[in-house]
């Protein structure tokens, strides 16, 4: 079996395992207890699962405007999903929209980022995993994924304008975070089987638009916003442990 065949075999087996894991999760989710979130939350009276999420109003030199959740979003996501959205703007024109989505008992609140961004007409041209330093009493490194994206916008007068954008995201639950959707699913699956608890994951993202050629300059500003705002809404993470995340793809064996 050549290397290409091995790669595709591993890929197909992984897809089958993920599909099987999803089926098991769907069957047992109603009989399991729900874990604690990795975000700071406030209880809503009369709501057993839904909670209140809050993004900071001011961060560094950024002010912000609260964004109400759109009705179409409320319509297609599970009813026990919790949300928060804010649009941040700095005096120098740097801006970003921050989004928090926290699942309840239904794991389908958290979806693949690969679906929503292309679905809005953006083309993903670069995917870069990063670790951002988060300060606090117990500093840690936060794993995030940075996508550089592009599209051509057609103005009302028919003129076409190229646009660039940045999409930075990660997933977080109690004491764990990852920038990989498959890792999140595997962790949820093994945690549920091993401990009988459904991890409560959140999907955090920051989105901004800029002129082509300004991507790195804009990312520096968005990175500052993320690093400063995360301690306001996310619980700190413990030191990393390889046992926290059983990877969907096993490490390569030397000589293979």
What order do the helices and strands follow? HEEEEHEEHEEEEHEEH
Count of separate structural domains: 1
Radius of gyration: 19 Å
Q: Please state the average pLDDT score.
A: 85
Judged by helices, strands and strand pairing, the structural class is: alpha+beta
Give me the number of helical elements.
5
How is the main sheet built? 8 strands, antiparallel
Number of strands: 12
Question: Into which percent range does the helicity of residues fall?
Answer: 25-40%
Shape, please?
Answer: globular
Distance separating the two termini = 12 Å
- Low-pLDDT residue spans: 246-256
* Strand percent estimate: 25-35%
Notable features of this structure?
256 residues, alpha+beta, eight-stranded antiparallel β-sheet, disordered C terminus
Outline the structure in words:
There is one protein chain. The chain is of the alpha+beta class and 256 residues long. The chain has one domain. Helices cover 29% and strands 34% of the residues. It has helices at 3-28, 71-76, 113-119, 181-195, 215-233; strands at residues 33-37, 42-43, 51-52, 63-66, 82-89, 95-102, 123-134, 140-154, 160-173, 176-178, 197-200, 202-210. Strands 4, 5, 6, 7, 8, 9, 10 and 12 form an 8-stranded antiparallel sheet that branches. A two-stranded parallel sheet has the order 1-11. Strands 2-3 form a two-stranded antiparallel ribbon. β8 and β9 (160-173) form a beta hairpin. α1 packs across α4. The longest helix has 26 residues, at 3-28. It is globular, with a radius of gyration of 19 Å.
């Amino acid at each position: 079996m050549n290397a290409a065949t091995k790669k595709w075999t591993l890929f197909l087996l992984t897809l089958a395992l993920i599909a099987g894991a999803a089926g098991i999760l769907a069957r047992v989710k109603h009989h399991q207890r729900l874990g604690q979130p990795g975000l700071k939350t406030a209880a809503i009276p009369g709501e057993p699962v839904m909670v209140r999420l809050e993004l900071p109003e001011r961060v560094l030199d950024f002010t912000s405007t609260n964004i109400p959740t759109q009705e179409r979003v409320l319509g297609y996501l599970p009813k026990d999903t919790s949300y928060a959205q804010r649009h941040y703007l700095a005096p120098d024109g740097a801006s970003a929209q921050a989004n928090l989505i926290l699942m309840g008992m239904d794991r389908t609140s958290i979806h693949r980022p690969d679906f929503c961004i292309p679905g809005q007409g953006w083309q993903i041209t670069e995917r870069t995993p990063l670790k951002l330093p988060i300060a606090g009493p117990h500093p840690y490194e936060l794993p995030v994924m940075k996508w550089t994206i592009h599209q051509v916008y057609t103005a009302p007068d028919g003129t076409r304008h190229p646009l660039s954008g940045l999409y930075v995201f990660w997933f977080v639950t109690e004491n764990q975070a990852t920038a990989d959707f498959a890792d999140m699913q595997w962790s949820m699956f093994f945690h549920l089987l091993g401990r009988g608890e459904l991890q409560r994951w959140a999907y955090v993202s920051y989105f901004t638009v800029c002129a082509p050629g300004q991507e790195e300059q804009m990312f520096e500003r968005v990175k500052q916003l993320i690093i400063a705002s995360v301690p306001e809404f996310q619980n700190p993470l413990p030191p990393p442990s390889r046992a926290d995340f059983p990877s969907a793809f096993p490490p390569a064996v030397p000589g293979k």
